[in-house]
Amino acid sequence: MLTLMIFLPLLGFLVNGIFGKFLPKAISGWLGTAAVLGSFVIALMSFMDLTGDTTIPERIYTKLFTFLHVGNFHVDFAFQFDRLSAVMTLIITGIGTLIHLYSIAYMHEDEGFYKFFAYLNLFIFNMLVLVLGSNYLMLFFGWEGVGLCSYLLIGFWYKNADYGKAARKAFVMNRIGDLGLLLGLFLIYDTYGSFEYQEVFRSVFAGSVESNAVNTAIALLLFIGAMGKSAQIPLYTWLPDAMAGPTPVSALIHAATMVTAGIYLVIRSEAIYALSPLAREVVMWIGLATSLMAALIGLKQNDIKKVLAYSTVSQLGLMFIALGCGAYTAALFHVITHAFFKALLFLGSGSVIHGMHHEQDIRHMGGLRKKMPITYLTFLIGTLAITGFPFLSGFFSKDEILVSAFAHNKLVFGLALIGAGITGFYMFRMFFVTFHGTYRNTHHSFDKVHESPWLMTLPLLVLAVLSVIGGVVNLPHYLGEGISGILHHTLNYDGGGKFSPILIYPEHAPEIEHTTEWLLLGMAVSVFVIAFLHTRNKYVVQGAVPEADSAQTGMGKVLANKFYVDEAYDTAFVSSLEAAGEVVGNYVDDKAVKGLVDGVGSGSNGISRLLSKIQNGNIEYYLVYMVIGVALLLAFNLF
Amino acid sequence: MSILSVFNQVEISHYIYLSTVLFSIGLFGVLFRRNAIILLMCIELMLNAVNLLFTAFSSYMGDADGQIFVFFIMVVAAAEAAVGLAILVLVYRNTRKTDVSFLDQLKG
Amino acid sequence: MEVIIIPILASIAVMALGKRNSIGLSAILSLLPLIFVAQFFQRVGVDGGWKTLFDQPWISDSIRFTTGFDGLTGVLLLLTNILVPVIVLGGIRNDENQTKITALTLFMQGALNGVFMAQDGLMFYIFWELALIPIYFITLKMSGENAFKITLRFFVYTFVGSLAMLASLIYLFLHTANFSFSFEALRAVELSHTESLLVGGGILLAFLVKIPVLPFHSWQADTYTNAPAAGTMLLSGIMLKMGLYGLLRWYLPLAPESLEFFQPWVVGLAVAGVIYGALIAMRQKDMKRLVAFSSLSHVGLIAAGIMTLTLEGLEGSVIQLFVHGINVVGLFLVIELIERSAGTRILGELGGLAKSNRLFMIFFMLIALGTVAVPFTNGFPGELLLLKSMYAYKPSMALLSGLTIIFCVVYIFRMVQFSMFGEGKAAVASLKWNEILAFGIIAALILGLGFMPQMMIDIVHNSIVQIGQWVSEVRGVMS
After folding, report:
1. Do chains B and C touch (3 or more CB pairs under 8 A)?
2. What pLDDT digit, counting tens, does each position of A466-486 carry?
3. CB contact, 8 Å: A627 with chain B?
4. How many domains does chain A have?
5. Domain shared by A537 and A573, yes or no
6. pTM value?
């Protein structure tokens, strides 16, 4: 079953990839969707088995074959399905199915229709390998594989050279992270002698390594990988550019699933992180910095997808704050709710772009609520969920992160709260500018704007419902002990006395007094209210429209230009590497090395020319040489 | 008075001096004259200087080996003169010259 | 024995047939040795050492014609006898040189098989040089005014290395117990420290030039760029591997005493080459030149992996030398087909090829992915093992050589981008049956080895362990 679950999308990829050209669009689209849906159903059934049936061990394990066996280096091609993988699998296949469905309508005019579905299926397959692998190398397989699919899908419209550039940027930045991850893996193997999660964590738990410096090094190297994949400072700049891909791709890969792989990695390696407070601090501060920086940049973006991209980066930063505080459940909880509402928002923005005939600039929109009621409604729910409207999914998950941050470090809490507040500002700004006010586009008349077909609105509605009720997976304890903390219990499952494979060191709920907790809740809600009122006043009541980037001054200009990070990277790395390549290629290699060799050649040529002068054929000279030679011989013998 | 004792009346050193002088004259001629005939003659001179030394030492040491060598050298010298002069005549017929400095056609 | 003679006879046959020959016929001729290779695997097997198959006095009683077979030889024979048909199928242009180049390629096949099977030092040397002759004539057919100069530089370079090796072999020969050139006899010679440095250095030089490792590489780029496609493929796909094979088969067992001195140098130079080649490749506009420098980068990693002397490094290097052969031939085949259709291979003048020929794009993409070592393609397992061995040698070296996984993406996908994607400036003609077949073989190997690298490890494991033992007898440590 496990194998079937993983390989169904691969099958979909193969069928669509090989025969897609000859299939009608409807069939290849539904085929791709069915493959993912099949995986989802199997995953759901397996999850029921796992949690319901006590006779089944805490994980389902399947070994397919030995991938590599060299000396004492042994890696199996094997999968495991435990509670953590199960949660991730359900997100991936569940949201994946909805997005496939959406894409059938969204991409229906594209000539690369079947190719798109082939790539999407390949992505789902790789993502499943990532979360279901039973060892770090399998994770690395999926890790690289999703990077590749991301590359293929960002550059899907390959005729546009800029998209190609964005795709390569994403791949290269991911690879930088991958190098860190790979070194981390080597260190793990060196230290613990295996890649298998169970064996590694068992050794960690048994305290087989005296020094925690090794664990810190492993944790930091793994985190470099997570930085690349989950777009954290300093490797985050690829994610906003990745919006060049079709919108369903942004929703699936760059919001809901792939970018959370870094979170998954850290939760999976909890045993190692638990032993290294230093590494956790690094994770937390980098998450915090990313969260704030991306939120600030988001304030001044006018491309609807760019705003969402920076919002994603910011939310990912929030998850890393949770991880740094040791609140693994909170992080995973936010992964789930974020997957719901961010997928919803991206699909909603796709619906807007579709209805507006490929217009992405929010300054050219406005007043869309009349023409696109379903999109408007669902987008509103998504916006409320992400900004923390009470009792929607995002409210619970974000609150849980803030509470654990508060318990850990008051300063972090304060800054994270500010970050959450900024979320409200840029999200409502985008929302109001897009859907309220007056229509401002000059290219297409307002009459041509249309609501999307049902295939696109259906996923929106489903996701909207999920965004509303998503909180149930981990309700806070003040709502009643019986129904709260489902996810917490799932992750901290004690294995019925057996060795628990997920969290080796169970986490403790932050110890905060009830009054403090209510106070924190109040603060979060009031930040939300301020953001809502301010933006509503500015963009709805006063009807302001964001100014052009060129009109920005001061801090606004810096933000609109994304803190000039891209430019700085360009100068620091791209240009300098190119210059190095230029210098090495044209001077060192061409002149120096080749010159050296050619020098040897022409040198010996010169000597031989000199020597050939001696052989001029004149007997007189020969006689002289002979006499000199004899004289030398004599001299040599005599003295 | 046998011929041997006549030889022995003169000190060995004088023979050495004489043959060195003869050899040097020959060597000088080989190196600095250009006429091929003179070159050949100078070579003869050098060979004979050596011959003289061989004979002198043979007598001085009372050993006949040196004189046998002299015969060998004379044979070689005769052959060499014959071949050398023959080549020279041919060269002269072709170039109308006996000057060796122009004979550089064989260079590689 | 058969695998050496048949290609040479086939080469004569092709020459004799001249214009009446066809691609199909020469492809079948070039495939014949593969049957015998398969038979070797079945009959001789890969366990139990380097077994002698054929042994006859040749030039004298002490210089014998001895061929042997084991896993390592098997891998190289597979590589040669799979790639030569691929080259014959796709790599030879239909012009006035076609017959000559086909014949020379087949001759080369025989010589290469001889190199990989030789169990006698002098026979190894003779075939090593014999393989140089056809490639010399193929590269002479190159375009450009510098043809002779470039070929000469290539020839002189490798020849100097070869002579150093010959001197070393003769030195060893003179110190054998009963004046024999056989591998076992040469290996049995005990060397003092100084002797081992000279002898080992001589052998090493020949291989380092052929691989090539950093300062000895300047013949490579020009030769690759200007030679006809078949020559470039033979050189990069198989002849480079002679150097790596030589390191494993001849250098390590014959002069392990010198490793202590040479190991850090060769590893350092090879890793420097990894970065050096990648940096240059990033800025090339000529696709062939780009791949030439990328090749310098990739083989650098393989050579470094061998010289770490870890089991992972040695076995990873065998996988990777096979895989690199497949992928680099694939890349040059892609470039050759682009050049045939579009008339250029300069990146700025190309673009949008993907639109014109989808099948071609799929093959190109697959080969590119194999080259950048994406999981589930053949490049990954070898690179993983090699980097792991580098880590075991020195973590800092793993970091430096690991940069290749970043740089490689940069230059390969830059090439893909500017040739396949973007505005349509040129087109690729639809593929003919022979080209599809050639690509098909490559694609199958890319995916097959990507999923099942263990097959190849099983083949070479015993040979590598044997070599490892010889090395560790002298050096003591071996992980």
Report:
1. no
2. 888 888 888 777 776 667 777
3. yes
4. 2
5. no
6. 0.84
